[in-house]
Structures are given as structure tokens and as C-alpha cells.
Amino acid sequence: MNILAIETSCDETSAAVVKDGCKILSNIIATQVEFHKKYGGIVPEIASRKHIEVINPIIEQALDKAKVKFKDLDAVAVTYGPGLVGSLLVGLCAAKAIAYSLDIPLVGVNHLEAHIYANFLETRHSSLVTRNRKFPFVCLLVSGGHTMLVLVKDHGEDEVLGRTRDDAAGEAFDKVARFLELGYPGGPIIDKLAKEGDPNAIKFTRPMLDQGYDFSFSGIKTAVVNLVTRNPQLETRNIAASFQQAVVDVLVAKTIRAAKEYNCKTIALAGGVSANSALRKEMETQAKNNKLKVLIPPLSLCTDNAAMVGCAGYYHLKDKKASDLNLTAVASLRLG
What's the rounded Cα separation, in Å, for the pair 64 and 125? Predict the structure, then answer.
């Protein structure tokens, strides 16, 4: 089964061809970072206009690289939420047009669910498929817009154990980087700078560390602002390292605790922040200490991409969960 997948939930325009739900034949991604960098964040109007400009060429590139023609497609999978509504509509309209013209199934995919399915894709890294891990497993889904712990019981059976009550982890990284005048996007910049600093230089509070599975990162962001305002002489690299370590400690501790409480032998990471080197290293260390397996997608599948959408769409089709052409964008779509 060849599935054309389209992802335009935020500021990446991506198209992919995925075979049988796990084999990536192509995964083309056009980023808009340079267009939004000078504003310090994503401008929705610019994002949707850039999607319109490149969506057709990106789809053509995906088909060419996969050596697949439109007539060889069996279905079209597309992200329909959550995300920026203008961005979502661009991908959704393109997917509908292709599905209608070829008379093949259209499959709407939840963007958050798609991130989890990045762990099912066949890569040189181990995946849930190649390792033949059984359900359930705990997934830490952490990005610029979302931070949540998900108990994945089976395909299509997700239970959200906890989510952020305010800022997502990635959002906190961006805001701290902006305050420290480091640039955008903040996550990769802080990750790189933190390697030069001392993660124990500043003792930031670990918010909600022992309080259920919800998260809160607004307070630690404010703590950075207050600290720097009072102590402008502090080294930026130590601030970055200490801030990052506090966030990582909370994310890892809650994930490990959830896996043990729900008797899961496998932990999976997903979302853009799962590309953070400190998070990856600490999660692997703590998982090993607790005799748990941890799966982390390659960097190319951590950020927004269409291959993960195609993987999720494949399993929807197996469960006969196709969508109709009345499918609409849902900016605030939730998981679970």
C-alpha cells in the first residue's frame, strides 16, 4: 500500500510516500525558519502563504523521489489538527483534491498521534516494529506547542496521563532564548549553549516533580527572567545549562514513573523537543537504570514531517477509519 502523506500544521511543508505503513520511500520537508526568525516566532499569516507557494512542488518532489506516480497511490493521509488553521487548510485542500481526483481514500490524522507513530517507521534506528515491542507503552510527546504523557494501549487507543497546564517545554525554551537574546528557534540554540555550561550552577525548582503527571513550565521561565534581572553578571551558558537540566529532570522523572506505574517495559519519545541531546541522553540513562527500553526517533522524524502522518494513516486504514471529503481543519484538536 502506497500512501501519500501531507503535513502543514505549522511552519513546515512536508509530503512523503510511505509503503505498507513503515517504509519511507520519500519524506520531503520545506522549512520556513528563515522567514519567521526575524519576528522571534511563527507568524500565522506568513506561514499559510508560504505553504501555498510550495505545497505543489513539495508533493511532486515526494512522488519523484519515491519513483511513484499518482496512479500508484492507494490513499492520501493528511494532518487536520491541531495547528494553525490557515496552515492546516492548505494541506487539507491539497489532500482532498488528490483523493477526489484519483477516487482513493482520504485519511485525516491527528498531528499529535502522528508524532507517536514516528516510532513505528522503519529506519536505521530501532523502531517499535523492528523490535516487535508489544503494547502498552508510555510515550513522552514534547514539542513547542504540546507536552504530554500518553499511555498507548493499542493502535487507536491512547490515554493521556498528563499534559502541560501552561507553557509547553518547547515554548519555554523559545521564550527563555528570546529573553536571553539568543535567537530563534530557542530549543536547538539552548541545547548547543548548554553543552558549554554547568547544569548545576543554578538550582532552579523542578516544577510539579512529584505531583501527578501534569507539567508546568511557565514558572521556571519566569524564574530565569527574575534571576537574570537581579543578577545580570551571570554567565548565559550556565543559565542555559541549568534551565535545560531542570526541564529535562521533570520530563524524565515523570516518564519513568508512569512506565513503572502502568507496567510498561518500553518508553517512546516524540515531538520536536525529543531532539534535545540532554533529554535523549538522560532518558536513555534512566531507562537503563530502571530496566526499561527506550525508543527515540532519528532527528529527521522528531520535528514535523509527513512520513509520520503516512504511518498513522496506514493504521487508520487497517481499522477502516477513512475520512470523507467534508473533513475540516480543527485547530484545537485534542488527543485521547
Answer: 25
CATH code: domain 137-296 is 3.30.420.40
Contacts (Cβ under 8 Å, ≥6 apart) of 88: 8, 9, 79, 80, 81, 329, 330, 331
The secondary structure element, H or E, covering residue 310 is helix 307-318
- Supply the pLDDT for residue 212: 93
Q: What is the pLDDT of residues 135-156, one digit of tens each?
A: 899 999 998 889 999 999 999 8
Grid coordinates in use for 237? 551558558
pLDDT at 29: 97
Give the span between the Cα atoms of 30 and 275, in whole angstroms: 18
Q: Is residue 176 a contact partner of residue 194, using CB atoms and an 8 Å limit?
A: no
- Alpha-carbon distances of 302 from 47, 264, 272, 275, 298, rounded to whole Å: 20, 22, 5, 6, 7
| Beta-carbon contacts of residue 60 (< 8 Å; ≥ 6 apart) | none
CATH 3.30.420.40 domain extents, the chain: 2-120+301-318, 137-296
> What's the pLDDT at 144?
83
CA-based R_g, the chain, Å? 20
- Separation of alpha carbons 32 and 42, rounded Å: 9
Instruction: Name the residue among 135, 124, 117, 142 with its Cα closest to residue 283.
Output: 142
Q: Residue 3 CA to chain centroid, in angstroms?
A: 20
> Above 70 in pLDDT, residue 133?
no
Alpha-carbon dihedral sign for residues 178, 180, 182, 186: negative
Q: Rounded distance, CA 152 to CA 147, Å?
A: 15
Contact 96, 324 (CB under 8 A): no
Class of domain 2-120+301-318: alpha beta
In contact, 96 and 106? CB cutoff 8 Å: yes
Give CA–CA dist 252/268, Å, rounded: 11
Q: Rounded to whole angstroms, how far apart are CA atoms 80 and 90?
A: 10
Residues 302 and 277: beta-carbon distance below 8 Å:
no
